[in-house]
Design a protein that fits this description.
Elements (H helix, E strand, L loop, with lengths): L16 H21 L9 E2 L14 E5 L5 E3 L2 E3 L4 H9 L6 E6 L5 H13 L4 E5 L1 E2 L13
Length: 148
């Protein structure tokens, strides 16, 4: 009886196991890194029609104050008392060339709280103060027809 031997040639199927492994590792990396990308406390900022772009506010070493709806104040993501703002901000900007402080506030925050924070920041001796807002989306509705 003759023994039939078959030789295995190249397999035409793609091995997806290494690709799946790499994708799972990337997924885990993105899941871990994404929460760290947020800079400071998130608030529902007021909307403005023509805001200026302030790219420096997104830098990691930017001095960013956030005021929540209930009046709590955060420097970065650390809570801060209103009476400590000027001393802490003065310490943060002492060694920096760009002495700009950015303030973002919830749109429902009381106006007096925002004014007192701005006053305390100005007392720290900052060169410029940026008030952060969001860009208002304009509706592209057709204008009404002219009256005849």
């Amino acid at each position: 009886m003759a023994k039939k031997t078959t030789s295995l040639g190249a397999v035409a199927d793609i091995n997806v196991t290494p690709m799946v492994d790499v994708m799972l590792v990337l997924l885990i990396i993105f899941m871990v890194v994404t929460p760290m990308l947020q800079h400071g406390v998130s608030v529902n900022m007021a909307k403005a029609s023509n805001p200026r772009d302030m790219q420096a506010a997104d830098k990691e070493d930017a001095v960013l104050l956030a005021i929540t709806q209930d009046g709590k104040i955060y420097l970065g993501s650390d809570p801060i008392a209103p009476d400590q703002i000027s001393t802490v901000v003065k310490d943060r900007i002492a060694q920096k060339l760009d002495k700009t402080v950015y303030v973002k506030s919830d749109q429902r925050t009381k106006y007096g709280v925002v004014v007192s924070v701005v006053d305390n920041v100005r007392a720290a001796g900052v060169d410029s103060l940026g008030l952060l807002t969001e860009r208002r989306e304009l509706s592209h509705a057709a204008p009404p027809p002219p009256a005849q």
